[in-house]
Amino acid sequence: MASGVVLLTGFEPFGGSTVNPSQEVVRRLHGTTIGGKRVIGHTLPVSLKQIGSAIDHILQETDPEIIISLGQSGSASTIVLERFAVNLTDFSAPDNDGASVTDTALEGDGPTAVASRLPLRAIERELLDAGIPVRLSNSAGTYLCNAAMYLFLTRTGPQTPCGFIHLPCLPEQVATALKAARDGEGLRPASTASMSLDLMVTAIRLAIEATVRHVAGAGVAVPGG
Contact 112/149 with Cβ under 8 angstroms? Predict the structure, then answer.
């Protein structure tokens, strides 16, 4: 494991949107130094067929010390720290390849569930102290966000702090959806909550800082936070 690299991943747009907040946060933080660690950002495909090989390539290229994956949640009204990933794909909508998968294991012989190795409670305290709404969640779902969390956790060692954070939609995404609903071109979104990109960038910067401090103080991250 190379010292000094924080791998930060997000996803490309999906579901007809032209933007994904996770990708935008990654773009903002790529190449920065946070807590003395260099942040390397990568965008993952919203593709079950491609995500495994993409993760393998990124891990080989970066050999990270810390891994934080990000994704968009259309139902989130806060930053969401995910506790567990499950060995299951069950899509509510097709991925960007048009694939629709139900009741399928990510890895046939893999564990049923794996716990985050990020210091979730420390991150939660950091964000709340900064006035940023955040909550813990017990499941990353069964779409590509869960797949990324599961595959990163199972393809790295137990000493590598690794986990997943869901982000709300951007205000412009919600406005676009509401406009489409008003014009009869789509359904009203289930949630109209949103968060500015600047606030999300600050939240993830704080999450990285909290993780770096935890690693320095404890040597290893505590699974599940």
Answer: no
- What are 218's two structure tokens? 């404890």
* 42 belongs to the catalytic site: no
Q: What is the largest CA-CA distance in the chain?
A: 55
- Our answer to whether residue 30 is catalytic in this structure is no
Residue 188 CB neighbour total at 10 angstroms: 10
Domain borders along the chain are 5-218
Are 37 and 6 in contact, with CB atoms under 8 Å apart? yes
Q: ∠ CA(61), CA(14), CA(189), 5° rounding?
A: 140
CA-based nearest residue to 201, from 128, 113, 127: 127
- Where the chain has pLDDT below 70, the residues are 1-3, 218-225
Among 65, 162, 166, 169, which one carries the catalytic annotation? 166
Give the active site residue among 145, 162, 169, 214: 145
Task: Please identify which of the residues 24, 82, 124, 126 carries the catalytic annotation.
Answer: 82
Fold of 5-218: Aminopeptidase (3.40.630)
List 5's β-bridge partners, or say none: 38
Give the position of tokens 């393809």: 155
186: DSSP letter: S
- Beta-carbon neighbour count of residue 175 at 10 Å? 13
- 18-69 pLDDT, tens digit each: 999 999 999 999 999 999 999 999 999 999 999 999 999 999 999 999 999 9
Residue 209 a catalytic site member:
no
217 CB burial (10 A radius; 0-12, 13-18, 19+): exposed
